[in-house]
Every structure is written in structure tokens, then in C-alpha cells.
């Protein structure tokens, strides 16, 4: 099988779409899923600069594209099926046909990737079915996906088969939970907690965790330039920044959630339910 050549014009077209949809992206090594940059983690809380993008994506420089999931990309949730008929079985044929006509879907060598958005946090999950230990991967915050027109390690291009838009269905977490139960499947978190906590985790357990969270949130407000920026510019904040702020605070329990609500009140799209 002939390996497809890198298509700079196709990459430019897709990058324009990703920009329009406010997706945050970076470069992968051509034909691989490995980052071509030193570290992508900081991009979860900041957008890449124009200089960085110009360095990563150039004519004559074959690269794959990675899209960061979660709050960095306006609540992006990627349902990655590792079975050709996985999506039609999970959604049901009628809903699957509707999704193909209403959201961005990518055909991969193993199965379709369905791009959706969620207004609430969804944990990263892996769902097994029969002998397929990763029949469905739900990729959210802290994860990324290879996107068109990237080249899969097998030598097959990632192909867009849906529309150039990303749907935001209501109650996506509840729908996923319901379908997993109806199909008799079980989900496991992408990052399983260790059986024996590390010393730092032991400190977070029980009575001391609330105190730790309180101190951590206070230190963020005092020292984190990103949180301070979001606080001071809440009324005009873009949605990806608001999502990133909420996600950064939500990990610190009740005090983090209360602070996120307080800082979000001037944000035009804020509702207490979110």
C-alpha cells in the first residue's frame, strides 16, 4: 500500500476549521501520535502563540495535528470507537445518522471518532466490550486526539466524514451513562487511582483535604496570573478561558467549586447549574 503524501493545502483547510471552532491544537510527528513539541501540557491553560503555530506548521514540513480535549477546546469531548460499527451500535442507527449530519466525525483505521461538546465535566473513560478492551475511549481534559488530515501509524489518513461543525447536545454525561448501562457495559476511568496512595495523596484524605484545598485556592488567587486574568476580565472572557478557569478550580473540592461560581458571576453565559 502506497503511503499518502503530506498535503499542505489540506492541512491549512483543516487548521482554519479548527480555529473557527476554537479548538486548541499542536503538532505531532508525521505518521505518529507522539508530540512533535517539547511539552503540550501547558497548552491546556494557554493558547499557543502565533510564533509557535508558525514554527509547528509549515509548508514542506510534514506534521500530524493533535487537538486538546476538554476545556481548552471549548468543552470538547471525543468519543473514539475502536470498532467499525461501534458508533452505530452505541448511538443507535437513527441517532448515528443524525450525528453524521450535525457534527464533526472522523473515520479512522479502527473506528469513528465523534466530536461533541459538553457544558459539564466528563471524566476520561475506557469502555470494554467483549474481547475489545478499548471498544470506546472517551477523551476529555488532560487528553488529546490525532485529527485530519493526520497520517495514522498504519499508513491511512484520518478522514472527515461528518460536517464542519461540533454539536453540543444536552445532558451528554447522562446519555453516555445511560447507554453504557443499557448495553450492559462497564466504564473505567482512564487514570485509575492507585490502591495505596502516595504520601501526598494520603495528606489529601480525610480531615486535612478541606484545609489543603482552602490553602490551594487562596494561593491560586494570590499568585496565578491566569486565574487573576480570568477574575479581572470575567465579563468579557472567551468561553475556552472560562472553561479552563472552572476546570482548574474544580479539582479543589467544595471551596474550588464555590470560588469558580463566584468568579463566574460576571461571565455572560454563566448559570449556577453549570
List the helices and strands and how they pair.
Blueprint: H1 8-20, E1 25-29, H2 50-56, E2 63-68, E3 76-81, H3 86-91, H4 93-100, E4 105-107, E5 112-117, E6 125-129, E7 132-139, E8 144-147, E9 159-160, H5 172-182, E10 187-189, H6 199-204, H7 207-223, H8 225-232, H9 239-250, H10 253-264
Antiparallel strand pairs: 1-2, 2-8, 3-5, 3-7, 4-5, 4-9, 6-7, 6-10
Helix pairs in contact: 7-10, 9-10
InterPro entries: DNA_primase/pol_bifunc_N
Domain DNA primase/polymerase bifunctional N-terminal: 15-176
Protein name: DNA primase/polymerase bifunctional N-terminal domain-containing protein
- Looking across the biggest beta sheet, what order are the strands in? 9-4-5-3-7-6-10
Counting DSSP H or I runs of 4 or more residues, the number of helices is 10
> What is the arithmetic mean of pLDDT?
87
State the domain count: 2
**CATH-defined topology of the largest domain:** Prim-pol fold
As a percent range, the share of helical residues equals: 25-40%
Structural class: alpha+beta
Low-confidence stretches: 192-208
What's the overall geometry?
globular
Count of DSSP strands: 10
Q: What is the CATH top level name of the largest domain?
A: Alpha Beta
Amino acid at each position: 500500500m502506497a503511503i499518502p503524501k503530506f498535503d499542505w493545502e489540506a492541512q491549512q483547510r483543516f487548521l482554519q476549521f479548527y480555529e473557527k471552532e476554537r479548538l486548541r491544537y499542536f503538532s505531532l510527528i508525521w505518521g505518529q501520535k507522539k508530540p512533535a513539541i517539547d511539552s503540550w501540557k501547558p497548552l491546556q491553560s494557554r493558547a499557543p502563540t502565533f510564533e509557535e503555530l508558525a514554527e509547528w506548521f509549515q509548508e514542506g514540513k510534514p506534521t500530524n495535528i493533535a487537538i486538546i480535549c476538554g476545556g481548552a477546546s471549548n468543552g470538547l469531548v471525543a468519543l473514539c470507537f475502536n470498532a467499525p460499527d461501534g458508533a452505530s451500535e452505541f448511538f443507535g442507527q437513527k441517532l448515528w445518522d443524525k450525528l453524521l449530519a450535525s457534527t464533526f466525525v472522523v473515520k479512522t483505521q479502527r473506528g469513528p471518532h465523534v466530536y461533541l461538546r459538553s457544558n459539564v465535566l466528563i471524566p476520561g473513560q475506557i469502555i470494554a466490550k467483549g474481547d475489545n478492551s478499548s471498544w470506546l475511549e472517551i477523551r476529555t481534559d488532560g487528553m488529546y486526539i490525532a485529527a485530519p488530515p493526520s497520517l495514522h501509524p498504519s499508513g491511512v489518513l484520518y478522514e472527515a466524514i461528518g460536517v464542519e461543525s461540533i454539536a453540543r447536545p444536552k445532558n451528554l454525561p447522562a446519555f453516555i451513562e445511560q447507554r453504557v448501562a443499557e448495553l450492559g457495559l462497564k466504564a473505567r476511568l482512564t487514570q485509575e487511582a492507585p490502591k495505596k496512595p502516595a504520601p501526598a495523596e494520603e495528606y489529601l484524605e480525610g480531615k486535612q483535604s478541606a484545609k489543603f484545598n482552602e490553602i490551594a485556592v487562596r494561593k491560586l488567587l494570590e499568585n496565578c496570573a491566569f486565574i487573576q486574568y480570568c477574575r479581572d476580565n470575567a465579563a468579557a472572557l472567551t468561553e475556552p478561558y472560562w472553561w479552563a478557569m472552572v476546570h482548574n478550580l474544580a479539582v479543589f473540592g467544595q471551596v474550588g467549586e464555590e470560588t469558580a461560581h463566584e468568579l463566574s458571576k460576571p461571565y455572560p453565559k454563566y448559570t449556577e447549574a453549570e
